[in-house]
Design a protein that fits this description.
Number of strands of chain A: 5
Largest interface: A-B, 21 and 23 residues
Number of strands of chain B: 20
Number of domains of chain A: 1
Pfam families (chain A): Response_reg
Radius of gyration of chain A: 13 Å
Shape of chain B: elongated
Largest sheet of chain A: 5 strands, parallel
Strand content of chain B: 15-25%
CATH topology of chain A: Rossmann fold
Number of domains of chain B: 5
CATH superfamily of the largest domain in chain B: Histidine kinase-like ATPase, C-terminal domain
Shape of chain A: globular
Domain Response regulatory (chain A): 3-119
Radius of gyration of chain B: 63 Å
Largest sheet of chain B: 8 strands, antiparallel
Modified residues (4-aspartylphosphate) (chain A): 52
Helix content of chain A: 40-55%
Oligomer: heterodimer
GO molecular function, one term (chain A): phosphorelay sensor kinase activity
Keywords (chain A): Phosphoprotein
Number of helices of chain B: 17
CATH class of the largest domain in chain B: Alpha Beta
């Protein structure tokens, strides 16, 4: 069973994704902040990390940089899961090494599962 | 004693002398050959004093008479051998007689000469007198018929001549005035004050021997004996003959009409000046009230006029000698003022407009336009400068607001939509009441709509900021249309509408555009067609026109009234009459505006071909055909 780590500061959104992936029969780890996310990523080595960008204290780009910079986590699949749909953010994420970029509102549950499957088994 | 005016015909005396001479010569010859020589000689010798007297006057006659005595002796001696003593006595008395005859003839001749001379002199004199008389008559004629008054005074300033006009104006009769002193006859006034004698023009002219001109401005008047006062203009000139001053002449005119005319003109000028001053004041007030900094320059680029707002914007008050270069220095490098000025002055461009020029911490709006006269010539330029910093900041903060707000709104929307989807997908079997399912569906649908609205706002904000990238791809429009129709066919079927694509037989050319945006525009237009049509169809067709590909979307819906057609393609406008008649089920009303921004951004055009109420609408957009 694949393990997914979700790093998201909004509790409602976090809980929703957790529900979704649980129902989709994935193992889910939740982190409500960038700091917590990094800790859990190093601990549990998930198959896929979904990371929000706009977060307090430590934003998604900082987390991404750290993940890709740390030998323990640099090989993890990281998809930025955000509501920022502008090209600058997209470019920045790719430059920093993100393996994918998905806009939340454009990826309803079904579609999201599709994309995730691609990344885990692609 | 010869005179120049020789008589044209010989007079009597001359004729007589000629006859005598000829007779003498004849007789001489006669007596020489046919009669006594002595008589002949005697007759002949008479000729000499006679002719000498005729030719040389009385002295000639005298000497002629004397000379003849020895000549006679020599002749008689030669021809008849007469000795001196024989000759002398009998010839003395006759010779004296000859002398006297010679003198007499001489005197006669002199008298004749003098008579003739006198006659010529007399004729010449009469000729001169005649000429003089006709000259005087002519002068008299001129002087009498002149429109001006003329009078002449001698060096004692007594009047010697007065022409009819002068008589009339001064109320004087020539016979009465002549010989009287001018200053007694007429008084000169300057304004209301009498001019003292020493300052009167005749006196001055006589003293200085120079002419004096009196103008309207000198304000001179004549006051006649009867008390009549009238303004005058005059010229007073010295009369000089043979280097000596003999008097002075004055030509003058009643200047009443002139003075009145002058007053009228002065009044006109004053009125015009007042009008001009008023117009100028209005113009300056208008310039001052403009909500822009104002600069007026001539064709050379010299600053002619500015307003207060300009000083406020630049923080410097314009001085004498400001030119384009001064302004360029103030504006900095980012705007080529000289270059743009030239373009506008040379009519290469009608005007130059810069919406927001970055200027230090501010933003300036610039507008350069030529000043053209009615005859078409360009006499300068106007530069309008606006401080749009606040507006720009507002715009920026509005954009930032949109970006942030959109993002903030998306977060809870994600949860709402996602969770309702989860309920429908995974939990709906647990729900017994069908109404519950409906409720969930409604929440889900509403959240999707809200997401669409937020997406529209965000898109719009980015498009307006120019933050959306337009990819340059070669797009198969026909293929995109087919894809979109596939996506929208279900919503059309729900309303029982027909979706048709009239694909041309010959494959249409590819267009140079951003494929995703082309798709968005198609979704918008075709989606609108479906939305606003209750029955019938939505038809799409393609045609090549100029170097663009034109796509028409034709529906059989409710159409748009002429009045509302003007509201199309604007922000937030659904073509409806009032703000309250919004169909909120049909989106934000941003669709067409966003489509327009996108189509224009790709180098195409968009518009309403035509629309008839209750018949339907025909929208079109064009995209540039890709060049290989």
């Amino acid at each position: 069973m694949s393990r997914i780590l979700i790093i998201e500061d909004d509790p409602y959104v976090l809980r929703f994704y957790a529900r979704l992936f649980a129902l989709g029969k994935y193992e889910v780890d939740m982190a409500g902040s960038g700091k917590e996310g990094l800790e859990k990523a190093k601990e549990s080595k998930p198959d896929l990390i979904l990371c929000d960008i706009m977060m307090p204290e430590m934003d998604g780009f900082v987390v991404l940089k750290e993940l890709k910079g740390d030998p323990k986590t640099k090989d993890c699949e990281v998809i930025m899961l955000t509501n920022l749909s502008d090209t600058e953010s997209y470019k920045k994420a790719i430059e920093l090494g993100a393996n994918g970029y998905l806009v939340k509102v454009n990826n309803p549950p079904e579609k999201l599962i599709e994309e995730i499957e691609k990344h885990i088994h692609g | 004693m010869k005179d120049n005016a020789a008589p044209k015909s010989l007079n009597l005396l001359t004729k007589l002398v000629i006859v005598l001479v000829l007779a003498g010569v004849f007789l001489l010859l006669f007596f020489l050959f046919f009669a006594r020589v002595g008589t002949g000689v005697f007759l002949f010798s008479g000729l000499i004093p006679i002719s000498a007297g005729y030719l040389f006057g009385s002295w000639g006659g005298l000497f002629g008479g004397i000379i003849v005595f020895p000549i006679n002796f020599l002749l008689l001696n030669a021809v008849e051998g007469t000795s001196l003593s024989e000759f002398l006595l009998p010839n003395i008395v006759p010779n004296i007689g000859l002398i006297l005859i010679g003198i007499f003839v001489g005197k006669l001749r002199e008298a004749q000469g003098r008579l003739l001379q006198g006659k010529y002199a007399g004729e010449r004199l009469r000729g001169v007198e005649q000429a003089l008389k006709s000259e005087r008559d002519r002068i008299q004629l001129i002087v009498s018929s002149m429109g001006e008054g003329l009078l002449v005074v001698d060096i004692q300033k007594r009047v010697t001549m007065l022409n009819p006009i002068a008589e009339e104006l001064l109320e004087l009769k020539g016979q009465v005035a002549i010989g009287k002193s001018w200053s007694e006859l007429v008084k000169t006034l300057k304004g209301d004050q009498e001019v003292p004698i020493g300052e009167r023009s005749f006196v001055q002219v006589v003293e200085t021997k120079k002419p004096i001109i009196t103008n309207l401005e000198d304000n001179h008047y004549y006051l006649t004996a009867s008390g009549r006062k009238f303004p005058i203009v005059s010229i007073t000139a010295p009369l000089i003959s043979g280097g000596k001053l003999i008097g002075a002449v004055k030509v003058f005119r009643d200047a009443t009409v002139d003075k009145e005319a002058k007053l009228v003109i002065e009044k006109e000028v004053a009125e015009r000046t007042k009008e001009l001053a008023e117009e100028k004041a209005k113009l300056l007030a208008s310039i001052e009230s403009l909500p822009r900094g104002f600069i007026l320059t001539d064709v050379g680029g010299n600053v002619v006029l500015t307003n207060k707002l300009l000083t406020e914007i630049f923080g410097k008050a314009p001085k004498e000698g400001w030119t384009l270069d001064t302004l360029q220095g103030l504006l900095g490098e980012s705007f080529d003022l000289r270059g743009n000025f030239k373009k506008v002055i040379s009519q290469e461009q009608k005007s130059v407009f810069i919406g927001a020029l970055s200027w230090g911490a501010k933003f300036l709006e610039l507008f350069v336009v030529p000043v053209t006269l009615a005859n078409g010539s360009i006499v300068g330029a106007i530069i309008l400068v606006g401080d749009v910093t606040e507006a720009k900041v507002l715009e920026r903060s509005k954009d930032e607001f949109f970006s942030i707000a959109s993002h903030e709104l998306r977060t809870p929307l994600t949860a709402i939509r996602g969770n309702t989807a989860l309920i429908r997908d995974y939990f709906i079997k647990k729900v017994k009441d069908p109404e519950f399912v409906n409720i969930i569906d409604d929440i889900h649908a509403s959240s999707i709509r809200l997401i669409d609205i937020v997406n529209d706002f965000l898109n719009l904000s980015r498009l307006e900021q120019g933050r959306i990238e337009f990819k340059k791809e070669k797009v198969d429009v026909a293929g995109t249309i087919k894809t979109v129709l596939e996506e929208l066919v279900s919503s059309a079927e729900q309303k029982k509408l027909e979706l048709k694509f009239l694909e041309p037989k010959k494959k249409p050319p590819l267009v140079a555009a951003d494929s995703e945006k082309v798709k968005e525009v198609l979704i918008n237009l075709i989606g609108n067609g479906i939305k606003y049509t209750e029955k019938g169809s939505v038809t799409i067709n393609l045609v090549e026109k100029d170097s663009q590909l034109k796509i028409n979307v034709i529906d059989t819906g409710r159409g748009i009234s002429i009045k509302n057609q003007t509201l199309l393609f604007r922000k937030f406008q659904q073509a409806g009459e009032s703000l309250y008649t919004r169909d909120t089920t049909k989106g934000t009303g941003l669709g067409l505006y966003i489509s327009k921004l996108m189509v224009v951004g790709m180098g195409g055009t968009i518009g309403l071909e035509e629309s008839v109420e209750d018949k339907g609408s025909n929208f079109y957009f064009t995209l540039p055909i890709a060049k290989d």
